[in-house]
Specification:
The relative contact order is 0.20. The chain is 24% helix and 27% strand. Helix 3 crosses helix 4. By secondary structure, the protein is α+β, with helices and mostly antiparallel strands.
Length: 377
């Protein structure tokens, strides 16, 4: 079974690879028709060169102005379907993958807008005759891949494949995150039990250091694990690869606070990390009330932000790659990739973060390495 390996750079090589892949996808979309439009990740930001540049070479604007963040509340359901249709990144037979914007929920209340509620309209926009359903997807807070299918048999084959991957401890999803702080060590694992607890008027995820056997058996608490690897760091910020080996609500956000490196734009759990005498500390949960993330002045200057604007800072967590079976029998695998949104790429430029160009191909798709195994509780 193929595994994730190598590293990615958002430069000429990747842009060419993405465009070539997009052309291959278009040819195989016999059951899918789209309008003659360009995807947002190819039109709204010049990503020809993401290598570190002198500060004066970066356009002096924040991510709110150039290229901007998608304002979902300003879009109608029809416009959202058009946006999702323009961002199809993979299609093969009954399987379609789209690159969703940050903030769009997967499911929700009947009156709310979500990927699930948009599926009938999305089916019409894509020109698909059969009913779509969700196979795997990024969470509401993060941007990235949503895997859809029109065939329940194929979906069952995918679920069997993912069950085998879990048993073999093979990661199937790879996220990239911009963090405030640099994890130490630079590569390892976070292993901690988690549960949902009512704190004030909110239900929040909290770590449980010594779970009882009864709590685990009653499924009140779940053991969780995330592999991580720092891809680059500069001026106290990092670009981190995250590969969750378990699934739990807000797992990645909570795990990064355990590393004292909250994700940029996390306005729920970042308050669990404080700073005293220049050192990051873990704040007791009873004092860590969710609030707008606080950044150091030097990071605000690099981002062209003020603390008063921070409530508009989007979460920089992106489901970048997904492992899928290459054949119906589950033998062999391949990766599908969704480029980060334009605001994310602009943030990398502003903070001086990059991904080194060490492409390793897996079925013509560039991929990340698997993170190591140095557990952190």
């Amino acid at each position: 079974m193929a595994v994730l390996c190598g590293q990615v750079v958002f430069g000429r090589a990747v842009l060419a690879s993405c465009e070539a892949g997009y052309r291959r996808v278009s040819r195989c979309m016999s059951a899918v028709t789209t309008k003659n439009t360009e995807s947002w990740y190819k039109t709204k930001l010049d990503v020809k060169d993401q290598r570190r540049k002198p500060r004066f070479a970066t356009k002096e604007v924040s991510i709110l102005r150039d290229p901007g963040v998608v304002s979902l509340h300003n879009l109608t359901g029809d416009k959202l379907c058009e946006l999702l249709t323009e961002n199809v990144v993979y299609a093969d037979g009954p399987v379609v993958a789209i690159n969703k914007p940050q903030g769009l929920p997967i499911t929700g209340s009947p009156e709310g807008v979500s990927v699930s509620s948009l599926l009938p309209h999305l089916q019409h926009h894509l020109g698909i005759g059969s009913e779509l359903h969700i196979v795997k997807a990024a969470s509401k807070e993060s941007s990235g891949l949503v895997l859809l299918s029109t065939c329940h048999t194929t979906t069952q084959q995918f679920e069997d494949f993912y069950a085998k991957c879990r048993k073999a401890q093979t990661p199937v999803t790879t996220y990239c995150a911009v963090t405030v702080g640099v994890p130490n060590p630079l590569e390892g694992e976070v292993k901690v039990a988690l549960k949902v607890e009512q704190i004030g008027d909110q239900r929040l995820v909290v770590p449980v250091i010594h779970p009882t056997q009864g709590e685990l058996e009653r499924r009140e608490v779940k053991r969780t694990e995330t592999r991580y690897k720092v891809l680059d760091s500069a001026d106290g910020c990092s670009l981190v690869q995250l590969q969750p080996m378990s699934v739990f609500q807000s797992q990645l956000l909570v795990h990064m606070t355990r590393l004292l490196c909250p994700v940029l734009g996390d306005h729920t759990y970042s308050s669990r990390v404080g700073r005293v005498l220049g050192q990051y500390i873990y704040v007791p949960l009873e004092n860590a009330v969710p609030r707008t993330q606080l950044l150091e002045e030097k990071i605000l200057r690099r981002m062209h932000f003020t603390q008063q604007q921070m409530h508009r800072m989007p979460l920089h967590l992106h489901l970048h790659q997904l492992l899928i079976p290459d054949k119906p029998d589950g033998k062999g695998s391949r990766l599908i990739t969704a480029p980060p949104p334009p605001f994310y790429l602009r943030t990398l430029q502003l903070l001086g973060l990059t991904m080194e160009e060490k492409p390793v191909r897996n079925n013509d798709i560039l991929c990340f390495p698997i993170a190591g195994k140095k557990p952190i509780a």
